[in-house]
Amino acid sequence: MAKIDFGGVEEEVITRSEFPMAKARQTLKKEVIAVIGYGVQGPAQALNMKDNGFNVIVGQSKQFQRDWDRAVADGWVPGKTLFEMEEAAQRGTIIQMLVSDAAQRAIWPMIKKCLAPGKALYFSHGFSIVYKDQTKVIPPKDVDVIMVAPKGSGLNVRRNFLSGAGINSSFAVEQDATGRAYNRCLAVGIAIGSGYLFPTTFKQEVFSDLTGERGVLMGALAGIMDAQYQVLRAHGHSPSEAFNETVEELTESLIKLVGENGMDWMYSNCSATAQRGALDWRPKFKKAVLPVFKELYQRVATGKETARVLSACGAPNYQESLRKELAELGNSEIWLAGKATRSLRPHQAAKVISKSTKGVTGRSRN
Ligand SMILES: NC(=O)c1ccc[n+]([C@@H]2O[C@H](COP(=O)([O-])OP(=O)(O)OC[C@H]3O[C@@H](n4cnc5c(N)ncnc54)[C@H](O)[C@@H]3O)[C@@H](O)[C@H]2O)c1
Ligand SMILES: CC(C)(O)[C@@H](O)C(=O)O
Ligand SMILES: [Mg+2]
Ligand SMILES: [Mg+2]
């Protein structure tokens, strides 16, 4: 493992050169990898592994016709490489649990029956194993239990693979029954298109992932956008102005600069006025939201968020109520303003500018 200094803390990271594709192919040459679930991660991981030359089959319930049809449209052949979940799990030697987390609890009794000794049970989230008191997912002792959790949307797992970039993932071995669990885990990580692989545990992964997606990555992000937009609108700003200053400028401009070189560098490349204001207001926002993040982490650690997911997402009418909730969000003024704003992005001009590197590299840090 390469040792990398993360802000003064040394961590170990697996690189592609340490575990090259040839080693992954050698490690998995006798394995049949059964991807159970063709939602978001399922298609990305299955297609990347297939394109990388691994022996992959897909298990998808035909009751979810839309997902079955997507699998067929993506080239999986019913009866050859696409099966009902149970048949795929019987045929697989590595069984990838890529149905939704709530569905993993529902299909577990069926999956358990297919776990012959020596097979590997694979997850992309620590959820089912860590909250086993609630999910009842308790694997037999004679199978490997491994995880590779891509740190991004399944859409990017596939998009980055196709662009040649890859995506970083964390990985963990929960149970090594065969003595091969570690290598199997890393080999699948490389096979699905991971760039760098960060060691973790099932518990650390699920606690941080649930916090992140409820917090800064999705929940907090949408919440603070709503709040700022509301204040601007209440003071008479037009929807386009409020949206531009809340979302569009973030996604189209500033966050890309943060991604390139960090927050201080982005601050170094805006006006002195914006820089002063941002530095002054940062601690105020931190103070305001810190208690909310503490409450969130507690709810994750005590399993309350898991109970919420299992009861809500496992309910029979959930898809219908979810559709309504998402439609309400999509039809709210801020996101309708967003739709109009997106149609006005000046793509042509951007292409012309990108041919030159003059003036695009930015100021160095102060
Ligand atoms: N979506 C992501 O980008 C992402 C990123 C990292 C990790 N993960 C993890 O990957 C795993 C899969 O998540 P996902 O988002 O790809 O899947 P998802 O939540 O979109 O689930 C969709 C799949 O579950 C199946 N399904 C739903 N209910 C079912 C039921 N009752 N019985 C049988 N099948 C059912 C659907 O047919 C479909 O195949 C989860 O553990 C998730 O936490 C997801
Ligand atoms: C893509 C995310 C938010 O990182 C993932 O954790 C998920 O659950 O979809
Ligand atoms: Mg998640
Ligand atoms: Mg995540």
TrEMBL record:
One Pfam family in the UniProt entry: KARI_N
Keyword line: Amino-acid biosynthesis, Branched-chain amino acid biosynthesis, Isomerase, Magnesium, Metal-binding, Oxidoreductase
Positions annotated to bind Mg(2+) 1: 209, 213
Family: Belongs to the ketol-acid reductoisomerase family.
Single GO MF descriptor: metal ion binding
Cofactor(s) in the UniProt record: Mg(2+)
Protein name: Ketol-acid reductoisomerase
Annotated binding of substrate, by residue: 271
NCBIfam families hit by this protein: ilvC
Pathway listed: Amino-acid biosynthesis; L-isoleucine biosynthesis; L-isoleucine from 2-oxobutanoate: step 2/4; Amino-acid biosynthesis; L-valine biosynthesis; L-valine from pyruvate: step 2/4
EC number: 1.1.1.86
Top EC class, one word: oxidoreductase
Membrane-spanning parts: none
Any GO BP annotation: isoleucine biosynthetic process
Ligand binding (Mg(2+) 2): 209, 245, 249
Keyword Metal-binding part of the UniProt annotation: yes
Residue ranges annotated for the KARI C-terminal knotted domain, each copy included: 201-348
Residues covered by the KARI N-terminal Rossmann domain: 9-200
Superkingdom of source: Bacteria
